[in-house]
Specification:
The structure holds two protein chains of two kinds.
Chain A (H helix, E strand, L loop, with lengths): L1 H31 L17 H4 L5 H33 L2 H16 L2 H12 L4 H8 L13 H25 L4 H8 L4 H12 L1 H16 L3 H6 L7 H11 L3 H32 L2
Helix pairs in contact in A: 1-13, 3-7, 3-10, 4-7, 7-10, 8-9, 10-13, 12-13
Chain B lengths: L5 H23 L16 H6 L5 H34 L3 H15 L2 H15 L5 H24 L5 H8 L4 H30 L2 H6 L7 H10 L4 H27 L4
The chains are: A mainly alpha, B mainly alpha.
Chain lengths: 282, 260
């Protein structure tokens, strides 16, 4: 009995805190999406589907689609860059491996807003990059490097890349590289043996990397706001506008529930695959 | 075996890509020229500008940021340590729920956490400000501290506790003299991680902040957004980076010392 009491004493405080400030707010968000908004920016009593019907407004499906698309492209580019890097780091031995891995992680520690700001300053019309490109005549005087989809994608890849490299490296570290030699001895080309032996060998790492990039990417707000134009807005921007701009809280809640539903897809995929693999293990 | 050079070249290019913007920002904080396209000579005037009267609000924001970070890391160190012990020592239905509730805040996009907390506070009629920021920071930091302390617990030898009990130590003596000292590096590393997460956070703070309670990331963000005083942003960002590196370096040293 005292065991049980100890368990409750240890579990209680944090679980209670998270129940009040994490679980209940999440349900409150779903609840408020069915409430009517009033003109003072508050929420009225009663129930309505107004905010949900408003999702059919042509603006929102386009933005939801753009959010998904930009996040998927970011994930694909991050995985494509991270895979050969993890392959290389996993094969290295000794000091270099630790040092290079450290170099990959360090930018990860720097403040997120500052990293995005650094790109904004670099790509700024008066900034170094544009002036240099103008100087050598690669771009014309009308070309802007900021406020377009390309800038959003590049900075999204920039900020999410370490999330892809780390889990893939962890998988590559456990990979038996002598399998590649075996594949070559059997006549496979270098590229083919990597694709057919290495990639399946690190599939768990690929799955984790995919989830770790895709989930935060879907919730992006800062990057499209700072380096994107008005036609590159993502769902996060709309949620912020409905919250702090024209203050329609039920609409913000509805958009958030929609975003939550989209984020659940990669979470569920990872969960189901993990469970299946665990069930297959003896 | 002949191996391709492509991965090594790619890694080099990616490292340049990762470091170039940050390095340019630091270099430009010492650049005399207003725009980063030219080098106008070395100067410390942008750092001096930080001291001026008009930038007083930046220092106020910095102070608030540090206070919130200190308070939220202190509280989340306690909460995280308790829940890590619960997850490590018990296997029950309750712990399965506990596990799920602790891991969700780490996985969920921070934007969703921010908006749901805002809706919750608005529903309660709470005044938004330093208090609500503090609550929000504790909520996301507790989970991260739990993960770090749990990692430390994995190398923990339960026999030490049994030995202490056999020698007649009471429960509280065991907690104070055995468990806490052994877990201390993990708890402190978790606290430092919580501190950096709190200092760094923009998105969640942005949603739950009230008038007059801006934090440093919020200030930097609005300066960047309005392209105002770009060289001053470089200077304050450089100072900010140095602070983060110090904390991370400290916490790395603590996590590297494995329990013996």
């Amino acid at each position: 009995m005292t065991q049980r009491k100890n368990e409750v004493l240890l579990t209680g405080p944090t679980l209670l805190w998270l129940a009040v400030f994490f679980v209940i707010p999440s349900f409150a968000m779903v609840l408020i999406s069915f409430r009517p908004a009033n003109v003072y920016g508050g929420v009225e009593d009663g129930w309505t589907l107004d905010a949900w019907r408003a999702l059919a407004d042509p603006d929102y499906p386009i933005i939801l689609w753009r959010t998904t698309w930009l996040s998927l492209v970011t994930t694909a580019v991050c995985l494509a860059l991270a895979l050969p890097i993890a392959f290389y780091l996993g094969k290295l031995q000794g000091k270099w491996r630790g040092f290079l891995l450290m170099l990959v992680i360090v930018p990860f520690w720097t403040n997120f807003v500052i990293r995005v700001a650094a790109w904004r300053i670099l790509l700024h019309p008066e900034g170094m990059l544009r002036q240099a490109l103008l100087g050598i005549g690669v771009i014309g005087p009308d070309t802007l490097l900021l406020y377009n989809e390309g800038a959003v994608l590049m900075v999204m890849v920039y900020t999410h890349l370490p999330f892809a490299i780390l889990p893939l490296y962890a998988a590559a570290e456990r990979f038996d590289y002598s399998l590649l030699e075996a594949a070559r001895d059997l006549g496979a080309s270098g590229f083919r043996s990597v694709m057919r032996v290495f990639v399946p060998g690190v599939s768990r790492g690929l799955l984790t990397a995919m989830a770790l990039v895709l989930i935060p990417a879907l919730g992006s707000y800062v990057i499209p706001d700072l380096v994107g134009g008005s036609s590159d807005e993502m769902i996060g921007n709309k949620i912020a506008q409905r919250t702090l701009g024209d203050r329609n809280l039920p609409q913000a809640a509805t958009l958030s529930v929609a975003l939550l539903a989209i984020t659940m897809i990669p979470i569920l995929v990872v969960f189901l695959i993990n469970r299946k693999e665990r069930a297959n293990q003896p | 075996m002949k191996s391709s050079r492509i991965p090594a070249i790619l890694l080099l290019l990616v490292l340049v890509f990762l470091y170039l913007p940050i390095l340019l920002l630091v270099v430009n904080s010492f650049n005399e020229a207003r725009y980063s396209s030219t080098w106008g000579g070395f100067t410390l005037k942008w750092y001096a500008a930080l001291m001026e009267r008009e930038n007083r609000d930046l220092w106020e924001a910095a102070q608030r940021t540090l206070l919130i970070a200190l308070a939220s890391s202190a509280v989340s160190m306690v909460l995280g340590t308790l829940s890590a012990c619960a997850l490590h020592w018990y296997r029950s239905r309750l712990q399965q729920i506990n596990y799920g509730v602790l891991y969700l805040p780490i996985i969920m996009p921070d934007l969703l956490m921010g908006i749901s907390l805002l809706l919750f506070f608005v529903g309660l009629g709470a005044t938004l400000g330093t208090g609500t920021i503090l609550i929000a920071h504790i909520t996301f930091c507790a989970s991260f501290v739990t993960v770090v302390v749990l990692g430390r617990l994995q190398g923990f030898d339960d026999n030490v506790i049994n030995a202490a009990r056999d020698l007649g130590a009471t429960k509280w003596v065991i907690v104070r003299r055995v468990i806490l000292p052994l877990l201390a590096p993990g708890i402190i590393a978790g606290g430092l991680l919580a501190f950096t997460l709190s200092v760094d956070d923009y998105v969640i703070t942005f949603f739950v902040t009230g008038p007059g309670s801006s934090t440093l990331p919020l200030k930097i963000y609005s300066m960047v957004k309005h392209s105002k005083d770009l060289p001053v942003i470089n200077a304050i960002s450089t100072l900010f980076l140095i602070l983060t590196f110090l904390i991370v370096w400290l916490s790395q040293r603590l996590t590297d010392s494995r329990p013996t």
